[in-house]
Every structure is written in C-alpha cells, then in structure tokens.
Amino acid sequence: MIYIDFSGIPFASQAEKIEPFLAQFKAKDQGFFDVLDEDISELEKFVAKQKPLERTVVLGIGGSALGAKMLRDALGGHNLAVLDTIDPVAVESVENLEQTRFIVISKSGTTLETKQLLNYFWDKAPHENFIIITQRESELWTWAETNSVPTVPMPGNIGGRFSVLTTVGIVPGLFAGIDMKAVIEGAKNMRTQFLSKENNLPFKLASSIMASGKTKLVHFPYVASLQTMGDWWTQLVAESTGKQGKGFTPISAVGPTDQHSLLQLLTEGPDEFCTIFVKDQSYFSVPLGKIANTELRATAQSLTELSRPNCTLEIDAISPETIGELIALWMGTVAFLGEFLNINVFDQPGVERGKVITKEMMKEV
Questions:
Q1: Upstream peptide bond of 256 is cis (omega within 30 degrees of 0)
Q2: Is 260 a residue of the active site?
Q3: Catalytic: 355?
Q4: Pick from 73, 116, 125, 160: most CB atoms within 10 A?
Q5: Which of 17, 115, 216, 355 is flagged as catalytic?
Q6: Same domain for 38 and 17
Q7: For residue 151, what are the CA distances in angstroms to 25, 47, 143, 334?
Q8: Catalytic: which of 239, 321, 325, 339?
Q9: Are residues 203 and 175 in the same domain?
Q10: Model-level pTM?
C-alpha cells in the first residue's frame, strides 16, 4: 500500500481533468496496463523446464535491461546479472560461459549494442544457453528460429521503458526467483487507482509535479535497494517527457548518502527542483532504519521550510506487491504528465534520429 504525503507541495485537485485525460490515454492504445491481465503460468513453466545453470545474464540496453536490474535489486533476486554495455572490459569480464544462461532482449530485434553482445557471446558460449525475447517476426525472431533458439514474444504496443511488467521483466525475474505474480498483483492495485475518477494517486502525483512549476525532478528513496529503481525511473521520465522543448530532467539519488552531495544544491541552489522522497515505514522497527527515516523527515521539512517543493511516497515495506505498485504508479504518473504537457510520452523521435546517424557512420568503421 502506498500513501503520499503532499504537504510539501500545495496543489489544486483538477479532478475534472481525469476523465478526458484517461480517454486520451486509451486512444493511444498503449498496452502496459492491459498486459497485467495475462496469465504468466506458461512463462513459469517455460522457465522451470530450462536446464539449470549457475547464473543468468541479460543482454540488452535501455528498457530491455533497466527493469530487470530494478527487480533484482529491489527484491533480492539471485544469480541474475545485466550486461547493458559494450564496454570491452565489462564484456570480457563475463566468465564461466558454460554455466551462464543468456537472455537476449530487443523489441525491434535490431538494437545495435544488443546485436553486438549476442554476436560476441554466440561465438563463445554453448548455443543451448540462449533465450531470445523480441517482437514476433522481428529480425531477431527470424534469426532465433533459424538457429533453433527458444523465443519468447514481447508485445508490439508497449515501448521498452514501459515494458518491465511484460516478458521483458517477467522472464528474468522468474529466473532470479522473484514472485512475479505478486509484483503484477501490486501493479493491478495501482492500475485500479489510475483508472479511477476518485483517489487517483498517479493523477495526484502528476498534478503535484505540475503545480510545483519545476522542471527538475529528484527521485530520493531512503532505501538502498531502490537505487536502481532510480535508473529505471530516469529513462521513463526523460525519454517520455523530453519533447517539443518541454519535459523534466530526472535526477536519481539515494538517502541518506546523497544528503552529503545533493542537499546543499536542493536547499540553496537554483530553485528548480521538485524532490520526491520514498520512505519504507517498516524501517521504524529497527534502530538504523529509524535513523534513516528520521533523516528523511528532517530533510523534507528543511526543504518545506524554504518553500522548496517536495513530497514523500510512503510504503508499508519492500515486497513484490509494493514494488509492483511503485512501478505502476510511475508509469501512470508519466502518462498523465504527457496529457498535462500535451505531448506524446510514448515515442522518442530524438533517439531514433541518433540511431539512423549511427548506422550510417558504422558503414565507415
């Protein structure tokens, strides 16, 4: 269960906008909430029948990798690594290939970095250690069929940064021993709020961000295991809202560590920041956690006293359900931010142009 303390950001409800905003969202045919109703039992069976290996490595980048990292770190997933770089030192550090399962993830099937990683490890590791997750009939899907590599489809109407609760996150999560059904149930709970005209938490969070008047958002959990959620959130916010000269600059922090790096800027630097804290209420039951939560409260109060906008997301405890709720909260919030800004948060034309230029330059390499 998530509660948000909005006392640091006064804002009007604007509830009359929920219905038209939801209608506009539905017209965009985005499936990241619809997919929650799909039965994942077949995926569980697929994972269970794979031969046991010592660890699993995800080969992907952006939305094909950040969600798996977030789930692993937040929920204590085991024996799961994510390689989302073509840095040669990092790539060559992957050892014991005989006992490593590779999950290759690319929606388009043409992602340059992912293709290069696949080529590198395909030449070195047993071919039966590979699994492909991609869109049906993509170039990668065809390659997998030709090479008799097991394939798992990903939906066509869900962009990478919104795909963590599809096969993109579910399959790596299952290999890591995470209760993905519980994650999905938590997300469903938040979806109910997203679709509601009353007590719509994603709409309230989006409204508060807009009311703050700030263009720089700070994600500031005082929970170390949520640090990589900040990485996932950064892509979600930046790639979704950075359009037509509009958008929000995301800054990922973790408390109390970053009190000693960012707080001076947030309190006395340019008044450009809206800070979103995350508090785990169960921390009050242990001495160190009680100190961390007290520091969070004090930091939030210090910002409020200076009229620096902030709010606090409060969860009962880290669990698969609450992580699912947080994921759905932010996806819903970003969808509403798009409606407030009158932009399409589901495309990324600026990224696509860079890809085209890269492909042209690669012809000369």
A1: yes
A2: yes
A3: yes
A4: 160
A5: 355
A6: no
A7: 31, 12, 10, 31
A8: 239
A9: no
A10: 0.96
